[in-house]
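Here is an idea for our session: we take a single protein and study its fold together. Start from the sequence, derive the backbone structure tokens from it, and show both lines together. Once you have written the record down, we can walk along the chain together:
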Amino acid sequence: MKHLISTADLTRAEAIQILDIAEEMRAFGTREVKKLPALRGRTVVNLFFEDSTRTRISFEAAAKRLSADVINFSAKGSSVSKGESLKDTAQTLLAIGADAVVIRHPDSGAPARLAATDWIGLPIVNAGDGMHEHPTQALLDAFTLRRQICLREGSSPHGKGLDGLKVAIVGDILHSRVARSNLWLLNTLGAEVTMVAPPTLLPVGAASWPCTISYNLDEVIASGTDALMMLRVQGERMNAAFFPNPREYSRYWGLDDARLTTLDASGDETLIMHPGPMNRGLEISSAAADSPRSTVLDQVTNGVAVRMASLYMLLSGDLIKES
């Protein structure tokens, strides 16, 4: 495997290996000296055509902890804003000595296009493309979920998938690349996925996806689930009225204080997840985001470890292959 473009491309063995190596990377992050010499002399370029804070910083921290040199390239104020093509930009990066490219792009398929051509021949990591996928976010979500469950059970996470776990992905499925990446990866790792959303925020063809579709969050909570993954309502991608108003959305689809109380009263140990950034008071209340059930800050911490593992395996060629 030379690129990380889609979680649908990962075998179960490859996905588990990434999570296992991320466990080792996370352990290094707790030491006084957090750097490893694994990628010393390598150069990783963060090529971001969309604004980002946590994803870009997370990739930058991951590369630097592996001792790689990092070049952050923003489309704003660059030759891209003057009309330079993706091909010309990529070949410029090759000419300056890049060894891997982490790309975020507003157009679905841009990272795959870069990986499929002979423009540069470097490992490509998809850091989010349009409404398509965000594979490292899904990997860090799976890592967090597996780690939390194993800590609860007092067992080692190494070598384990997510077999039998029930995960509900709730909210703006239509515009969410996180939802798509999580769906493919969670299925690969053995979890049962339920998509919960209003009909207007489900993509055409969602009925054929390997998941259960529900329009009622309260019913899903009542039936029991190991994790609720709340998605950000992506207003910047909406060019029509997908729901009447924020108050109604929060009432029917948000994890509000009342639903948090229901979770607490049930005795279930349901985890609350969110890829961030959060719209507090819309898809999730502050009480839910800050509750002991919340894994939001753990997800940020784990993101660095997962991205370290991804960069390490792509640049070292150490991903295993299934026979």
